[in-house]
Each structure stands twice: as structure tokens, then as C-alpha cells.
Amino acid sequence: MKVPHYQNIVILTGAGISAESGLATFRGDGGLWEGHNVMDVATPEAFRRDPVMVHRFYNERRKDLFKVKPNPAHKALARLEGKHKGEVIIVTQNIDNLHQLAGSKNVLHMHGEMLKVRCRQCHQVFDWEGDTSEHLACPSCQAKPALRPHIVWFNEVPFHMEEIEVALYTADLFVSIGTSGAVYPAAGFISMIRSMGKAHSVELNLEPSEGQSLFAETHYGKATKIVPAFVDKLLKETG
Ligand code: OAD
Predict the structure, then answer these.
(1) Considering only CA atoms, which residue is closest to atom 16 of ligand 1?
(2) What value does the CA radius of gyration of the chain take, rounded to a whole number of Å?
(3) Ligand 1 atom index nearest CA of 112
(4) Which atom of ligand 1 is nearest to the CA of 38?
(5) Which of 38, 75, 159, 163 has its CA 20 to 30 A from that of 108?
(6) Ligand 1 nearest atom to the CA of residue 15, by list position
(7) Which pLDDT does position 237 carry in this prediction?
(8) Residue 1 in 3-state DSSP?
(9) What is the pLDDT of residue 37?
(10) In this predicted structure, what is the pLDDT of residue 36?
(11) Residues of the chain with pLDDT under 50
(12) Would you say 212 and 204 are in contact if contact means Cβ atoms under 8 Å apart?
């Protein structure tokens, strides 16, 4: 049997890939994210209403990042990028830095990054490891209050969409990992892939996602088991 050789691989990841590293998913635990309704902490309205609470919430999440490490699923994707002869792009909905810590280079954070902040006056983006608050001035334009998490909240436009669309159009393998398929536009990527009819599509998740029936191939189980197994098989087949 002829094994397909994939040139351009697009991998969409969600919170499920980081769950076994110790970071909470969004829709587990009764639909709460670290004890909060997502809409109470991840909207521009929530930030306008109670910036102190939203800063505090993201300060805690940022601290969590220094307690966790990439797991074998993140590492397997970095291995794939290192060994695959074509292109591998990770499009992640995650705001953690675990793909980069695992060694992945080609990562698009469509929902932003916890280790960055942005000035809401001059729009400059800064690497940021400490806490933020309304008392801090922008390091560039000195406006105050100015800083906000560099995170895409509900009702805001995700980052890198043009680049992501180009990657999806040229993909011949699309793999979705650890996402519930509940949040658009990422949830719609599989429909785009299907309508173009060019790429093979694979879902790797703990349980069937909302878009499960649209995938050509599915594997269910913990990411730390099924992602390395999938990557090893792919590298063996495509040499
Ligand atoms: P969700 O919490 O909605 O979904 C996580 C998925 O991972 C679920 O389908 C779980 O079954 C699966 N899962 C859990 N543990 C797993 C494991 N160990 N191995 C494999 N799969 C596992 O998270 P996302 O789909 O990433 O957006 O959520 C999408 C967006 O909704 C987030 O980026 C965030 C949120 O609101 C913003 O904040 C803008």
C-alpha cells in the first residue's frame, strides 16, 4: 500500500494537550475555569467592570506557568517539527508556553500569550513574567493605567488569522488535539479543511469533540499516550 507523504502539516491544539502538565481545561470541572465562569474573566466587559479582579486572575494563571513543564505530547510535536521534511505549523488556542518549552518553533498563538502584555494606549506588546495591575505605566508611552493581558477575550478578533488561513489552504494533513471544538473560529477549521477536500484530517482527544463526525480519522485517549504514538507512526510511515 502506498503511504501518503504529507508536505504541509497543520496541528491545532487546545487545553487538553496541557491538561496532563497540570493546567486546567476550560470546559471541565462543571464548565468553570479555575473556579470562574469564563465570561466573568475573559471578556473586555469583565475587564472594564473589574480590572483589579481580571489582573489578579491572570496574575495567578501566569504564576501557574512557572510550576508546569511540557509533557510527552508537547515533546512529540516538537520532535515531529524537527524530523519532518516538510512544514509543521502548530496553531494553538492555548495561552501557555509549553509548546515553546518543548522545543517547537513554528507556533501561532491565536488566543494570545500569558507571558505577554499589551499597552491599550500605544498597542505595543511586551514580554512579561511578573504581575500586572492598573498602577503600572506602559514601559514605552508611559500611559497609566495602560497594560492588559495580551490575550484574545470573547468578542475580540483572534491573532494571526491570515497566516492561519494560508496554512489551512496549503495543508495536506490537519490534526486537531485536545480541543472541545466549542469555540470559533478554531472550531470551524475542520469544516474548511473538509470543504477543500485536499487534506487528511485527524482528531486526537480524550473524547469525541463537537466536530468529531467531520474528521476522517479519530483516536481517543490521553494526549500523553495518543499523541506520541501518532507522531511515531507518522514519522515511521513517511520516513
Ligand atoms: P476545552 O476545555 O473546551 O476542551 C478541552 C478538550 O480537551 C476537551 O474536549 C477534553 O475532552 C479534552 N481533554 C481533556 N484532558 C485531555 C487529555 N489529558 N488528553 C487529551 N484531551 C484531553 O478547551 P479548548 O477547546 O482549548 O479561549 O477551548 C477553546 C477556547 O475556549 C480556549 O482557547 C479559551 C476558551 O474560552 C479563550 O480564552 C479566548
Answers:
(1) 16
(2) 18
(3) 39
(4) 36
(5) 38
(6) 26
(7) 87
(8) coil
(9) 84
(10) 81
(11) 1-2
(12) no
CA distances from 28 to 24, 31, 220 (A): 8, 5, 17
Is 160 one of the catalytic residues?
A: no
Per-residue confidence (pLDDT) for residue 75, from 0 to 100: 98
Residue pair 54/39 in contact by the 8 Å Cβ criterion = no
For the chain, give the mean pLDDT: 94
Residue 211, CA atoms < 13 Å, CB-side half-sphere: 29
Backbone region of residue 103 per phi and psi (left: phi > 0; alpha: psi in -120 to 50; beta: other values): left
Task: Evaluate: CB of 207 within 6 angstroms of ligand 1.
Answer: yes
Sequence-ordered list of residues with C-beta below 8 angstroms from that of 21, at least 6 positions apart, any chain: 68, 69, 70, 71, 74, 96, 98
Task: Look up residue 68 and give its three cell numbers.
Answer: 508546569
What is residue 1's predicted lDDT score, i.e. its pLDDT?
A: 46
Q: Is 178 in the pocket of ligand 1 (CB under 6 A)?
A: yes
Q: Closest Cα partner for 91 from 221, 192, 219? A: 192
Regarding pTM above 0.90, the answer is: yes
pLDDT in the model for residue 132: 96
In short, whether 179's Cβ falls inside 6 Å of ligand 1 is yes
Q: Looking at residue 2, what is its pLDDT? A: 47
Only one residue has cell 509549553, namely 98
The residue type of 14 is G
Indicate the DSSP class of residue 46: H
74, 84, 99, 111: the active-site residue: 111
* Whether the Cβ atoms of residue 91 and residue 163 lie closer than 8 Å to each other: no
CA distance 176 to 197: 16
- Closest to 93 measured CA to CA, from 180, 12, 205, 153: 12
Residue 32, pLDDT score = 64
